[in-house]
């Protein structure tokens, strides 16, 4: 019995360790640099993400995938989710460039999390070829570069009944040939791939389509992956796993809770509910108890985000999400996410699109364009770079500053205006009423002095480039957010004090 208890305790410890993103102290937000090249990610870690206090980067899938016909800028983003092999070769770069990126980002305190796709292999296409030149035979479920043959896949059927867990997990999603992860051979190939990524220094993985794989199979795969590289992490450090499980209603056969025992889960309800609130469909004063009281996962098991590469295109967990296209409301939702103590937070960094299938900015040969940086620190060449918006990177700094504090001094007007503090380290206010000004004297919890509002500007050379707030000796301050202002948020923290 004692041996069994020790084993169970060890397994529980491993499960907890796999929920640790291994951030450098003082950092706690991930950014998804969607479709970026490895060389651009490395440069961004050094010139911006590290200095601005970002904790990590989620990359797009790095393995070889199907190069769809017509090698042109019209190639869709979702071709990355059509695996051909587990070789590190993609439009983002080769294995050497990947290793260089991981090393350079780790060296400036920014962790790398790879989006890994191993629920399936590519669907059947005419004359298929991988980006690295490998030629699969998907019609016969034969992928020689792995190698997988038809016996390694589930029988052909389509995912069409989300009330049947067997259908969801054993059938083909969008025609992608569904691997049988219960086979030790298949698990071994997947683990080999993840171990290759670990050997280069990644901190963890975003597991695509986890909902479509059996929890016991995933738990076994995760447990078999090596500890993280001691070049960058302490000996015995387990990889961080966060899993894509879309469970918006809680009424389907597959539940998010089935996956929280051995990793973090993407909490899709988070973004849809906050988007709904800041769009004015629910008064934001109800956010006073935001979190598990709203039916969300426990905080330590949740990956919190507003939009991702799927749902900002109207699929993969919701079609009514705030995105960069609704900038004022989007910045408000992101600001609330980064101000409120819940979950592991991730922000999106996009490229401009009008067609939901559109791939990243590219030249006439399909080569992804460089992420260029304008004189005002925004991005060019078709890249949105929300993570470079002042309001978002300033809230990343806010979140870093208030880490470990609780929510204090909540105030609301019973409708669409709210404010709250984070201990004695920060204070934030929101005006989500389009035709009403926010003018209140409120308790901030901060020490006496003058603070720069980090939404409208910054602290520079002993002065504020935007609005300032004077906190009185009793901690109160006059807070004003006009409905005509570009931003519906005001935020101050101990680091913005003059």
UniProtKB/TrEMBL annotation:
<dbReference type="InterPro" id="IPR006046">
    <property type="entry name" value="Alpha_amylase"/>
</dbReference>
<dbReference type="InterPro" id="IPR006048">
    <property type="entry name" value="A-amylase/branching_C"/>
</dbReference>
<dbReference type="InterPro" id="IPR031319">
    <property type="entry name" value="A-amylase_C"/>
</dbReference>
<keyword id="KW-0326">Glycosidase</keyword>
<dbReference type="InterPro" id="IPR017853">
    <property type="entry name" value="GH"/>
</dbReference>
<keyword id="KW-0868">Chloride</keyword>
<keyword id="KW-0119">Carbohydrate metabolism</keyword>
<dbReference type="Pfam" id="PF00128">
    <property type="entry name" value="Alpha-amylase"/>
</dbReference>
<comment type="subunit">
    <text>Monomer.</text>
</comment>
<feature type="domain" description="Alpha-amylase C-terminal">
    <location>
        <begin position="408"/>
        <end position="497"/>
    </location>
</feature>
<keyword id="KW-0378">Hydrolase</keyword>
<feature type="domain" description="Glycosyl hydrolase family 13 catalytic">
    <location>
        <begin position="28"/>
        <end position="399"/>
    </location>
</feature>
<dbReference type="GO" id="GO:0046872">
    <property type="term" value="F:metal ion binding"/>
</dbReference>
<keyword id="KW-0479">Metal-binding</keyword>
<keyword id="KW-1015">Disulfide bond</keyword>
<comment type="similarity">
    <text>Belongs to the glycosyl hydrolase 13 family.</text>
</comment>
<dbReference type="GO" id="GO:0005975">
    <property type="term" value="P:carbohydrate metabolic process"/>
</dbReference>
<feature type="signal peptide">
    <location>
        <begin position="1"/>
        <end position="17"/>
    </location>
</feature>
<dbReference type="InterPro" id="IPR013780">
    <property type="entry name" value="Glyco_hydro_b"/>
</dbReference>
<keyword id="KW-0732">Signal</keyword>
<dbReference type="GO" id="GO:0004556">
    <property type="term" value="F:alpha-amylase activity"/>
</dbReference>
<dbReference type="Pfam" id="PF02806">
    <property type="entry name" value="Alpha-amylase_C"/>
</dbReference>
<keyword id="KW-0106">Calcium</keyword>
<dbReference type="InterPro" id="IPR006047">
    <property type="entry name" value="GH13_cat_dom"/>
</dbReference>
<protein>
    <recommendedName>
        <fullName>Alpha-amylase</fullName>
        <ecNumber>3.2.1.1</ecNumber>
    </recommendedName>
</protein>
